[in-house]
From TrEMBL:
InterPro entries xrefs: aa-tRNA-synth_II, aa-tRNA-synth_II/BPL/LPL, Anticodon-bd, Anticodon-bd_dom_sf, His-tRNA-ligase, HisRS-like_core, HisRS/HisZ, HisRS_anticodon
Reaction(s) catalysed by this chain's protein: tRNA(His) + L-histidine + ATP = L-histidyl-tRNA(His) + AMP + diphosphate + H(+)
PANTHER family reported in the protein's UniProt record: HISTIDINE--TRNA LIGASE, MITOCHONDRIAL-RELATED, HISTIDYL-TRNA SYNTHETASE
Aminoacyl-transfer RNA synthetases class-II family profile domain ranges (all copies): 38-334
Organism: freshwater metagenome
GO molecular function per UniProt: ATP binding; histidine-tRNA ligase activity
Protein name from the UniProt record: histidine--tRNA ligase
Family, as annotated: Belongs to the class-II aminoacyl-tRNA synthetase family.
UniProt GO cellular component terms: cytoplasm
Keyword Protein biosynthesis: yes
Keywords attached to this entry: Aminoacyl-tRNA synthetase, ATP-binding, Ligase, Nucleotide-binding, Protein biosynthesis
Enzyme class at the top of the EC tree: ligase
Database matches in PROSITE patterns: AA_TRNA_LIGASE_II
EC number: 6.1.1.21
Amino acid sequence: MKFEKIQAPKGVREYLPPESSAFDWVRSQLIAPAVSAGYQLMELPVFEDTNLFSRGVGESTDVVSKEMYTFEDRGGRSITLRPEGTAGVMRAVIESNLDRGQLPVKVWYSGQFFRAERPQAGRYRQFYQVGIEAIGLDDPAIDAEVIAIADRGFKNLGLKNYRLEITSLGDSNSRAAHRVDLLKFIDSLTLDEATKERAQINPLRLFDDKRPEMQEAMKNAPLLLDYLSDESRANFEQVKKYLDALAISYVINPRMVRGLDYYTGTTFEFVHSDLGAQSGIGGGGRYDGLMETLGGQSLSGIGFGLGVDRALLAAVAEKSLPQDQFTSDLFIIPLGDDAMSSALVNAQLLRDAGIKTEIAFGDRSLKGAMKAADKSGAQYVVVFGDSELSSGEVNLKRMRDGVVTSVKIAQLKDVLRETLSR
Ligand code: HAM
């Protein structure tokens, strides 16, 4: 009997060699600036009580109303695969009383998230984010720091073709004043029932409606940015001033609507210009009521989530991936048992010195091993044979141009360290 092959579920993105090395590099580059700024890791479950997201992220959002992977577990509880990271972080902070200690709580996370969206290039049902949250401090300086950390992550990847869009959703007074006028405006439009209902829960969502007739209808809608209270306006001005000081350029987008309902105050998105429809490579903002909504104290917070899949696509589009980071520095081909012993010992020493070293295993001919070395993409190759072992000298071959240098085995480490750092 022949079994059929089983395929991965629709819309998931997986990373296999050799691409996975680039993915891993992108992820670590994106989060490095947060680690340097004192943010600490949080490892959280990928599934949570469904209420966490319906209450935290908001019923009016597509994420909650259409895209959640929700199921009943064996104990009859409603469980949802996390569609985003912020609500889970808040839940964990409240549950473990981290908010009763030193503030702000500064954490980072990284992992898979799940949204049952229609799959297309750059939009997956399982995707990867790295994110940070800074909880317990309402200060424009930390807004600027959070944005700067995200921006530095993208710069680490060598990205250039992206822009930062920012706006402010103001405080509750600003939003209340705007909501009255916006609802009045929306009332004057002829809308279908579903859209009317959405507008009642969160009228801002209509700015995000992609239908051309809705975009047209919303052209003259009142903008929240024009309704900011004096305090919110001063706050936003200060954020912009700090960004100017950091030489981080931005454009103000007063029509930005984030896909999650918890946002207040400063909100932002990073948009890449080479990615087509799925151009958002990261986004975030302040969420002042979220902790209280989830049963905690009333503390403000701000953070971001960066899309690792899309950041990788952007780096590929801009050809900014450092290819030599993903292959070995040296490939050793041992011929015979004694040579294998020496290869194992030397590879260990070289790896300890930070030189990525591979060994050709198996009973291959020299030709077969050379082919494997070539395929591996290693920058240098050496052969360890009887004569090399007795003379203590090897021929170090640079694969890029075939140049061969005679090097003492004992000096391989120093020679390689010197040439690789150039
Ligand atoms: P978000 O804007 O929904 O924010 O997602 C952040 C990033 O995740 C997006 O900019 C995008 O790059 C990536 N992303 C989202 N959905 C998909 C998908 N289906 N396929 C591929 N990539 C995707 C949040 O999730 C917030 N929790 C961010 C945040 C943290 N705000 C405050 N703190």
